[in-house]
């Protein structure tokens, strides 16, 4: 399917899942308590863990919202990529690539091992695709671009 009218909509599902996913992770940290996330960061040796916990939460919530809306995607993607890279190298690398490691299925349900860095790489790829290919239709970036083009005429 090589239809440019259809292809131009490709960024929309990327924006929706990447933006929502980041926001969901940020809200989960708020709901479970930022102090708990700060304790995890401290155990990992991250400096200023309480500050970094809140910065991470803000990046996830507001960066996710920016991606969801297609607003300042290139700018928002930078701190989001940093959060992903830190997660990859401080948490996920020892567990390998795969994010789903089914250990057993018992009467209580499925039991999984520690997740690898696969999902983080998928999020990075989604951000890269949006930065390189644009945020697509129904985006604030697209609206701003159209306004600038109209002003230049």
Task: Outline the structure in words.
The chain has helices at 4-7, 11-32, 34-43, 49-69, 73-92, 118-133, 140-152, and strands at residues 102-106, 109-112. By secondary structure, the protein is mostly helical. Strands 1-2 form a two-stranded antiparallel sheet. β1 and β2 (109-112) form a beta hairpin. α4 packs across α5 and α5 packs antiparallel against α6. The radius of gyration is 18 Å and the shape is globular.
What are the defining features of this structure?
153 residues, mainly alpha, 7 helices
- Radius of gyration, in angstroms, nearest whole number: 18 Å
State mean pLDDT (0 to 100 scale). 95
- The helicity comes to 55-70%
Strand content: 5-15%
How many individual helices?
A: 7
Distance between the termini: 34 Å
Quaternary: single chain
Could you give the count of β-strands?
A: 2
In the sheet with the most strands, the strands line up as: 1-2
Largest sheet: 2 strands, antiparallel
Count of structural domains = 1
Low-confidence runs (pLDDT<50, min 5 residues)? none
Morphology? globular
| Secondary-structure class | mainly alpha
Brief synopsis:
The chain is mainly alpha-helical and 153 residues long.
